[in-house]
Amino acid sequence: MKQELYNYILGIADNSLILGQRLGELTGHGPTLETDIACTNISLDLFGQVRSYFQYAAKIAGDGRTEDDIAMLRKEREYVNVLLVEQPNTNFAYTMARQFLFDVYHLAFLSELEKSKDLTLSAIAKKCIKEVRYHERFSSDWIKRLGDGTEESKAKMQEAINDLWTYTDELFHQTEADIAMVSEGIGVDVTKLKDGYYKYVNEVLETATLEIPESKYFQKGGKKGIHTEHLGYLLTELQYMQRTYPNMEW
Amino acid sequence: MITEIQNIDKNLIEILSKVSDPEIPVLSIMDMGVVRSALIENGNVKVEITPTYSGCPAMDVIGDDIKKALKEAGYESEIELILHPAWTTDWITPRGRKALEDYGIAAPLEAEADKDVLLNEKRLVKCPQCGSTNTKLVSQFGSTACKAQFQCDDCHEPFDYFKCLK
């Protein structure tokens, strides 16, 4: 139970950690000052949320591991985030498509996690959902703006949606920790979120005059630690200080 | 609005009111509503604070500042960060809202009105410089996690709007 709860928390938090790091890469590199600030604000929210999860995970582990150890000292195969969030900031359309496809899931997930029997997870969910509503508002706005924008912005957004679509199905795959925690009344049954997710995503895509991808082939593996090539590079940067100066502290 | 319990020893109110938000120095942490409880037990004070936003970098500083203020008043203290109930802009006191306005930050509107202005549908946010509501949203995210960027179309000054959080 203890190990499964720990694994379950990592399964939630790693998504926010890796996506937060991706958005953080845009610091000083966003397409405009406002979008740069927005992306890094969202990154800050996600990192704040990750701290709450990892502090709780460290408490459950109870072996002296800290939130920083959990964030920084794992190997690539030990991160269990979904493949979607590790995809690179290819261009702003990709950044926003990735954000939108995750935000819609994140909102649905948190609104269920609020009901968890685990009071800490429920409290974290209640806190996070308020912030994630702003994230989803921002990203869906950009889907519409770029999709229903110029010929070029539409083509780029359509390409981003088509490419990232293949990573959406994995959001609804259950892990062993998921199954164990659902049966305890602690975890969220993600399989039940799927229909509502695609219904809402498709509505936004239609409003944005974009085509809904028809692909039925989906990538998976992230939840088991089998990642795309991109995660290694991301971790190299995330873990740079700990690799260069092991055990350093602020 | 659900009234959330705030449990603060009356001997501590004045001391805690002198501690301000490091990012908005005119706003005391009491007026901000981040102090949820402060109780004296055997001469020690136990304080519970709650973050405005999860990633708010000011929380560590606020904790340190509370400890310092209490120490100057002769108390040792212990600070605990709690997440539940989650902070809401409803907890900012009328005095806090006025302090925000005087400082040049527009105070949060009601949740529904907030949605209208953040979707750029209605012009309701009052410019803290000239008082006009002929203002527009520049970006939903601003200089800190809790603010959005606005601009006044009358006096043309840019300003921050404290986003509604419920």
Structural class of the helices, strands and pairings of chain B?
alpha/beta
Terminal residue distance of chain A = 33 Å
Q: How many structural domains of chain A?
A: 1
- Mind telling me the C-alpha Rg of chain B? 17 Å
Shape designation of chain B: elongated
- Principal-axis shape of chain A equals globular
Please name the CATH architecture of chain A: Up-down Bundle
As a percent range, the share of helical residues of chain A equals 55-70%
Low-confidence stretches of chain B: none
Radius of gyration of chain A: 18 Å
Describe this structure in words.
The complex is a heterodimer of chains A (250) and B (166). Chain A has 250 residues and is mostly helical. Chain A has one domain: Ferritin (Up-down Bundle), CATH 1.20.1260. Chain A is 66% helix and 0% strand. Chain A contains eleven helices and no strands. Chain A has helices at residues 2-24, 33-61, 67-72, 83-86, 92-113, 119-147, 151-165, 176-183, 194-207, 230-238, 240-244. In chain A, helix 5 (92-113) runs antiparallel to helix 6 (119-147), helix 5 crosses helix 7 and helix 5 runs antiparallel to helix 9 (194-207). The longest helix of chain A has 29 residues, at 33-61. Chain A starts with a helix and ends in a 6-residue tail after the last helix. Chain B folds into two domains: 7-91, GMP Synthetase, Chain A, domain 3 (2-Layer Sandwich); 104-162, no CATH class. Helix content of chain B is 25%, strand content 28%. Chain B is built from five helices and ten strands; from the N terminus they run βαββαββαβαβαβββ. Chain B is elongated. The model of chain B has no long low-confidence stretch (mean pLDDT 90). The interface between A and B is medium-sized, with 28 and 26 residues.
